[in-house]
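pinned: reference chain
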Amino acid sequence: MNESAPHRLNPFLADLTQAMRSTAETAKLATVEQAREDAKAYVEQLKTQTVEESGGLRRDSESDIATIRASAKARVDRVRVETEERIARRQELLEQELTNYDASIESEVKRVEERVAAFQDEVARFFEALLQGGADPTIFANMASQMPSPPDFDPELRAQAQAQARAQAQAQAQAQAQAAQQSGRDADSGQRAEVAPAGGPAAAGAPAAPAGTIPAAYRAPLLPGTLYGAGVVRGRLYSEWYPEVERLRAIGDDDHALTLLVDMVAATEAESRADGSYVAHRPYEDLADIYHGRNDAEEELSILERYSRQDHAPGAVAARLQDRMKALKKSAKR
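pinned: its structure tokens
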């Protein structure tokens, strides 16, 4: 075999190679074109989905906005109703104040007239005795020195009449609450009525003195009201329940006082969140006092820590409760 002879390309192999190259080129073009078609179809699908999903997002947003508006309207309506009810109650109290004020003025006018009439009678009797005393100047002068003085009328009559009218109006308002309570006495208040000492609270429906004028233990229980919304407990503003807490603690019913105070804490926190105001410190402190009386340091510390986490007013009260909380923590570490 002659190794130096030139190599000749096999025509068959040349044609086969050419055919393979042509097929590969065709396959390449087809693959690229298919990829482009797939990408185009995918982009179209994305656009379609984008339109649909964008519409869904807009619908969700519109629904949320409608809910927010409805919630805001409901909140405004609650505030409006609460405001109107409070205004109506204050106007009723004003009518009572005016009525009682007029009555107190009439009573004082009558008292003044009676005092003037009595003074006139006294002066008449004096001069009658004076004229019958004879002509001796010494006796006459001595008797004249004993002439009765005119009555001294109080220059602060108006202020006293107003204060009396306000006190009477408040007493009437409480009496109305007691009258409404006649049919709704619970068993607990009934038991307390059995052990109330003589001279205690009047029967339900009878006029009662304002809360501040009688011992807490003898006050009638406070009835629920009709208000609702942030800051409301059992139909009344939480601040209206402080006298009831005092009454419950005065009769030794700390369990009900504790339950009421827990509701009051929740109400003042709800009000704080609603209008950005400070929470009231008193419900927290009263709860801490009850827990302290029960030697429950864990719950006492818990309610003080809860107060410290709220938006509370700075000052001496906050500092006092803060020091009390720190002292409890220090004691717990020992």
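why pinned: The CA atoms of residues 96 and 169 lie 5 Å apart. The two ends are 109 Å apart (CA to CA).
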